Amino acid sequence: MSSPFWILLLGFLFMASGTLATPPRRPIAVPFGRNYVPTWAFDHIKYYNGGSEIELYLDKYTGTGFQSKGSYLFGHFNMQIKLVPGDSAGTVTAFYLSSQNSEHDEIDFEFLGNRTGQPYILQTNVFTGGKGDREQRIYLWFDPATAYRSYSVLWNSYQIVFFVDDVPIRVFKNCKDLGVRFPFNQPMKIYSSLWNADDWATRGGLEKTNWSKAPFIASYKGFHIDGCESSVEAKFCATQGKRWWDQKEFQDLDSYQWRRLAWVRNKFTIYNYCSDRVRFPTIHPECKRDRDI
């Protein structure tokens, strides 16, 4: 988000108000082991470039994953990922935040593989109080298996924004005034995984994983966290309101970002739970806010 536009905007805010919130910095790539640990199948993770780049392997025996060492209440979380190339049908590469209890909160990026020549599907979801069913699906405007691309979440008490590179692809606003729960008091860990989900991931499970193509490999770098680290029992962030992501300019998208989001919705969205009247005859309350449909 530290684009020339943001620099101009922040400069304008400084001139207008005489104060300047600390601007967001470009994510700083750090070695994997600084903030993360493997979660399972340690032998299916390979390390490169001094641990600043890793690969997750999936074969017919197991996938693998990793998680952050700490838990966080609010912040900006970024990962650079290069997805499984070629025939990736049946596989899911995930990057998400999740709390630890049964009524958990969760913020999901899930990349659903496909047959060679068919595009990946990026599915996002938000769980609050253990309830999800807020899926949105898009096609990406590039091939995510040919090069690293940046995927990030901005989470504060006003909104959750999903970004691909610097493009917002989804916004989930705090609609507590409509009776909608919002993640605000359950610290989350950051997770990523590569696993087999051929019972649902590709064409609803019709396309099965071709194990002759194994191992499937997803690559990661840029293991960046800029969040308020808290214990899993914490109910608030000690620096609430003081960090850059809490400032006024991050409480909503600006006009340029809304236009970019509209571009994604119009050109690349293939499913939105807000528009699914078969599955949800009664519209979710947050969908009534026109901007967020």
TrEMBL record:
Signal peptide residue numbers: 1-21
Gene: LOC107924509
GO-annotated molecular function: hydrolase activity, hydrolyzing O-glycosyl compounds; xyloglucan:xyloglucosyl transferase activity
Subcellular location per the Swiss-Prot or TrEMBL entry: Secreted, Cell wall; Secreted, Extracellular space, Apoplast
EC main group: transferase
Key words of the record: Apoplast, Cell wall, Cell wall biogenesis/degradation, Disulfide bond, Glycoprotein, Glycosidase, Hydrolase, Secreted, Signal, Transferase
Database matches in PANTHER family: XYLOGLUCAN ENDOTRANSGLUCOSYLASE/HYDROLASE PROTEIN 8-RELATED
UniProt source species: Gossypium hirsutum (Upland cotton)
PROSITE patterns the UniProt entry points to: GH16_1, GH16_2
Protein name according to UniProt: Xyloglucan endotransglucosylase/hydrolase
InterPro entries: Beta-glucanase-like (IPR000757), Beta-glucanase/XTH (IPR044791), ConA-like_dom_sf (IPR013320), GH16_AS (IPR008263), XET_C (IPR010713), XTH (IPR016455)
Boundaries of every GH16 domain copy: 16-220
Residues carrying sugar: 114
UniProt cross-references to Pfam families, sorted A to Z: Glyco_hydro_16 (PF00722), XET_C (PF06955)
GO cellular component: apoplast; plant-type cell wall
Family: Belongs to the glycosyl hydrolase 16 family.
SUPFAM superfamilies given in the database record: Concanavalin A-like lectins/glucanases
Function: Catalyzes xyloglucan endohydrolysis (XEH) and/or endotransglycosylation (XET). Cleaves and religates xyloglucan polymers, an essential constituent of the primary cell wall, and thereby participates in cell wall construction of growing tissues.
PTM comment: Contains at least one intrachain disulfide bond essential for its enzymatic activity.
